[in-house]
Design goal:
CATH class: Alpha Beta
Number of strands: 4
Helix content: 40-55%
Number of helices: 9
Structural class: alpha+beta
CATH architecture: 3-Layer(aba) Sandwich
CATH superfamily: NADH Oxidase
Distance between the termini: 30 Å
Bound molecules: flavin mononucleotide
């Protein structure tokens, strides 16, 4: 199967950096964005539960300016082409599990009874085994996988990103009208094209050596 070379992968991973200044005039073409949207959707999650909703802001400039003030004034929120807010379920209910079981049965054209063991496992492990705070934390861990998948996919397509934790999640929930929706803000990511003036693109990557962080046994 044809795939990219290790050299290309490393080249793009080195090319990627947390972009501080985006070129506010450049928009990601629809076809490229569509693939990036799929990188969110295709992200794996624990049990396959997908306890998230990706709120994509690419039109409403006024809304994005309001979010800048809930994000330590970081301009990436407004100047990037697309700004993704990763929101997660505030709790995991039996209804969530049931919806997912319906989805498996319909997609794979199997009887729902075939997914009963999986259903029981998720219910005991997540629905009853964790309290609401732990459920949201569990969901957040899944969202971070989507964030990583999104950034790497973007880098492979030559799209710049900035992961954003420097934000006030409660204020985001207010501005985005998420209160009472069953979803809460977890993390965000700006995507688009680096501005030529962004000096951060020239900085050497600071990473520990393999010797320091990889243990081969
Ligand atoms: C979860 C997460 C949250 C981050 N939040 C911010 C942020 O709010 N603003 C920012 O400029 N950079 C943010 N960063 C970028 C990191 O500072 C950056 O990835 C790190 O210093 C390594 O640099 P590099 O990504 O340019 O290689 C965040 C990174 C991660 C993974």
């Amino acid at each position: 199967m044809a795939t990219i070379t290790p050299e290309t992968l490393l080249e793009q991973l080195h090319w990627r950096y947390a972009t501080k200044q985006f070129d506010a005039q450049r928009k990601i073409p629809a076809q490229v964005w569509s693939a990036l949207e799929q990188s969110l959707i295709l992200t794996p999650s624990s049990y396959g539960m997908q306890p998230w909703k990706f709120v994509v802001l690419n039109k409403d400039a006024e809304l994005r300016e309001r979010l800048v003030s809930c994000s330590w004034g970081q301009r990436q929120v407004a100047d990037s082409s697309h700004y993704v807010v990763f929101t997660v379920r505030t709790e995991i209910t039996e209804q969530d599990v049931d919806t997912y079981m319906d989805s498996i049965a319909a997609t794979r054209q199997i009887d729902k009874s075939a997914v009963e063991p999986l259903k029981k496992m998720i219910e005991s492990g997540i629905v009853r085994g964790l309290n609401a705070t732990q459920q949201q934390e569990w969901a957040s861990r899944q969202a971070y996988i989507a964030l990583g998948n999104f950034m790497t996919s973007a880098a492979l397509l030559g799209i710049d990103t900035c992961p954003m934790e420097g934000l006030d999640p409660a204020k985001y929930d207010e501005v985005l009208g998420l209160k009472g929706s069953g979803y809460a803000t977890c993390v965000a990511c700006a995507a688009g094209y680096r501005a030529a003036s962004d000096k951060y693109s020239q900085l050497a990557k600071v990473r520990y050596t393999a010797q320091q962080v990889v243990e081969n046994r």
